[in-house]
Amino acid sequence: MPERLERLLTDLGERSDYDAASQCSRCGYCEQSCPTYVATGLEAYSPRGRNQLVRLLIEGKLEDPQTAREALDTCLLCSACTTTCYAHVPTADIVLEGRRLLREKPHWLASFLSRMMIERPGLFKYIMKLAYVGKKLGVSRLARNPLRWIGLRGLAEADAHVEDVPLVFLEERLPQSGKGANWLYFAPCGPNYLFPRVGLATYSALGKLRGEGAPLQNGCCGLLAYNYGELKDARTLAERMIESAEKTPGAPVVGDCSSCVAFLKSYPQLFLSDADWRARAERFAERVEDAIEALNVELDAGEAVTYHESCRACHGQGARKPAGLKTVPLPESDVCCGGAGAYAFTQPELSDEVLRRKIERIASTGAKVVLTSSTSCLIQLARGLRKYYPAGTVRHVSEFVDEKLPRGNP
């Protein structure tokens, strides 16, 4: 069985995972904030239903524990319920603990990828480039059905969802070092391997607003390993991230994928049993900023632009849309789009149900551009707009802000 955290940081302080789940009073106030409950009406797909299932799993009171798997696997981990809940019960963390209880071992593909990122990062990048060449040549399209047949449906769906891929990664296009940096740029895997234009825009905009900066020499933040049961690998990657940042003391660490940035801010939870690393993780987390926090400029985007709030920004970090950015109001702007990392690939039907509702809200504004701040949102919204609202396009907020900022400022 994969390792569990067993203790969580909650609004009531550090608690065991069982005590955290027990904080849920089952009042049901959270249910209408939960996209999967709204889409299905199933009690087991509600936050209180999932918290109760994890509590029963820990107590050993489920006759067949695997009956809880579908309910827990279909959670988006968006944390909208935590924002709504008066007690701020950390349902996403509790659900992940439940998933770890149900797995006999970590997900093999996630384990393989995290191990490669730790032990053979050069080989990982080489394999990624080979895969991208195959996609450019159309080979990956031919592989989709075979992938589904051998149980790798998620990879097949991922290939179908992502339209284009870069052959030059972001880290190859950024400066390799910088002296006297006022800020450090953390390159998440999404901008690095899928959307280099996003990272370049963030880096450029930060330079205009804050002066000299430098790339943080980082690898993966560990979120993939954390979500799929490899806590040891997640800690190793977190330690490397912290050590890299400590080489430039005090400088803010700015990232442009809200999911990864939220995870960086949660690093202390990985080290609750290690006083030294916990203190280092807390100091590091205090330095971390989401790009939407760092790029808070006065800017009127006009009537053609609206804003979708990434779940891991607004619910995971409490970081809302940049206050100075004026856009067309989007109904349910903080409701999940159904991307949720790999969720759109592993739960395509339910993900699409959530996505349709989001695209309907976007279309209702009449906007032609929707801005967001997370890699999975960029992928998911692009697919949804192509399918349900072709008049619209999606962009990362960094790209939009960088274009509007005057050159050489300051």
Describe the structure.
The chain has 410 residues and is of the alpha/beta class. Among the domains are: 96 residues, Fumarate Reductase Iron-sulfur Protein, Chain B, domain 2 (Orthogonal Bundle), CATH 1.10.1060; 110 residues, Rossmann fold (3-Layer(aba) Sandwich). It is built from 22 helices and eleven strands. The strands form four sheets. The protein has a four-stranded parallel beta sheet with strand order 4-3-5-6. Strand 1 and strand 2 form a beta hairpin. The longest helix has 18 residues.
The largest sheet is: 4 strands, parallel
Q: Spatial order of the strands in the main sheet? A: 4-3-5-6
Structural class: alpha/beta
Helical content, roughly?
A: 40-55%
Mean pLDDT over the full residue set: 92
Q: Rg to the nearest angstrom? A: 21 Å
Proportion of residues in β-strands: 5-15%
Strand tally? 11
Which architecture of the domain at 295-404 does the CATH hierarchy give at level 2?
3-Layer(aba) Sandwich
CATH topology of the domain at 295-404: Rossmann fold
Low-confidence stretches: none
Amino- and carboxy-terminal Cα gap: 53 Å
Number of contiguous helices? 22
Q: Tell the overall outline.
A: globular
Under CATH at level 1, the class of the domain at 295-404 stands as Alpha Beta
